Amino acid sequence: MLLDLSRLRSGVETLTRRYEPSTFDLGHEDFRLAAPVDLTGEVRKDSQKVRLTGRVTTTLECDCSRCLEPFAVPVDARLDVLLLPSSENTGDAEREIAEEDLGVSYYKDDVVDLGELMREQFYLALPMKPLCREDCKGLCPVCGINRNRETCSCQTTWVDPRMEALKSFKTKG
């Protein structure tokens, strides 16, 4: 998943690649790849500056945060990244990130890791709170069944045991 910039001539080159889910090392990520990843776009090289524009499409699978069931998240992300040599990354200690810094990445030894650029797009496509559907009922906190598929008769109101002594005052009055 590496793009060798030394092979690119100055000008514009078309980029069309397909990666199978097994080519990504996702280890302990919050999602899984459920479909091949398609990367299409153009690479414009001007001396040391390279601009990558295009699109990443795939389908991710992640677990619902309420019922823990897997569901699909479609990804159709636009890319527009300015790639600069790592020697230009001055690493200023603490400074505010400007708007123009958001679309900048760095490469080393004339090689760009497209896998990292795509992984970044996957994370940006994930919802902040992944839900299989808006009205997901989640799991029963007592018996653990999925309330979307089954119903249970568990008592779900919680009584604070520290307040039991105060209950007698309320009933005596």
Keywords:
elongated, mainly beta, two-stranded antiparallel sheet, six-stranded mixed β-sheet, 173 residues
Please tell me about this protein's structure.
The chain is mainly beta and 173 residues long. It has two helices and eight strands, in the order ββββββββαα. It has helices at 114-125, 164-172, and strands at residues 2-4, 11-19, 32-33, 37-46, 49-63, 70-85, 104-107, 111-113. The strands form two sheets. Strands 2, 3, 4, 5, 6 and 7 form a six-stranded mixed sheet that branches. It has a two-stranded antiparallel ribbon with strand order 1-8. The longest helix is centred in the last third of the chain and has 12 residues, at 114-125.
Q: State the low-pLDDT regions, or none.
A: none
Radius of gyration using CA atoms only = 25 Å
The biggest sheet amounts to: 6 strands, mixed
* Structural class designation: mainly beta
Mean pLDDT: 86
Count of helical segments? 2
Spatial shape: elongated
Share of β-strand residues: 35-45%
End-to-end span in angstroms?
Answer: 75 Å
User: What oligomeric state do these chains adopt?
Assistant: single chain
How would you briefly describe this protein structure?
The chain has 2 helices and 8 strands; from the N terminus they run ββββββββαα. Helix content is 12%, strand content 36%. It is elongated.
Write the layout of secondary structure elements.
Elements lengths: L1 E3 L6 E9 L12 E2 L3 E10 L2 E15 L6 E16 L18 E4 L3 E3 H12 L38 H9 L1
Parallel strand pairs: 6-7
Antiparallel strand pairs: 1-8, 2-4, 3-5, 4-5, 5-6
